[in-house]
Amino acid sequence: MPRNTQSDLRTLAYVMRRTNYGEADRILNLITPEGKVAAIARSVRKEKSKLAGAVEMFSLIDINIHRGRSELGVVTGAKMLKYYGGILKDFDRMELAGMILRRVNAAAESMEYSAEVETPEYFRIVDSCLKALDAGAELQVVESWFWFNLIATMGEQINLYFDVTGEKLSPEVLYEWDFGEMALKASLNGAIDAEMIKLMRLLLSSDLEVVLRVKGVSEKCEKILRIARAAAKV
Questions:
Q1: In which band, very low, low, confident or very high, does the pLDDT at 151 lie, cut at 50, 70 and 90?
Q2: H or E element: which one contains 225?
């Protein structure tokens, strides 16, 4: 629900990174429906700061930012709408959530050397993943969906309809993944069947909450996650 004026922005946001600055300030890298925004929260590290409790990690925030001549905006107000505290109850869940925020932050920064990058899809990715992790969703499913959607948002083509030779994929053929071509190639010993291809298409085309409702998705995602990580070069 963004509210824009010429010099101010009111929007939803997640904190991707916080950097201490000066004696009491903190620079925030935020992901919003408008894209990446960098802003400074003045005096936020002081004990009586009104902003301190609102700009926590793993929280959905309603934030007001004043934008002047500097690339850095100034946070003038913030309200926590939802705290995903369930993520912190499990170390693996917390590690995955932190990795997602770091990767999205790096991806947004790599697109443009600016305090603001207009890529709203990143907000959808972070929002979907944090909600799912807080609700106890299967980690392999969340991570698989994350990598496929991050790669696509960064402009990489993941071909799930034609093989490396340009032939349309057949439900009767087994495939393996060609990481150089980012596509499938026929293989007598391939482990990728029609059902896995269908699921990978679903991961790319559907919201995470839809994917999580598919029966048996977690069992298939063990193999798919290896493909997703390799495609993302991790």
A1: very high
A2: helix 217-231
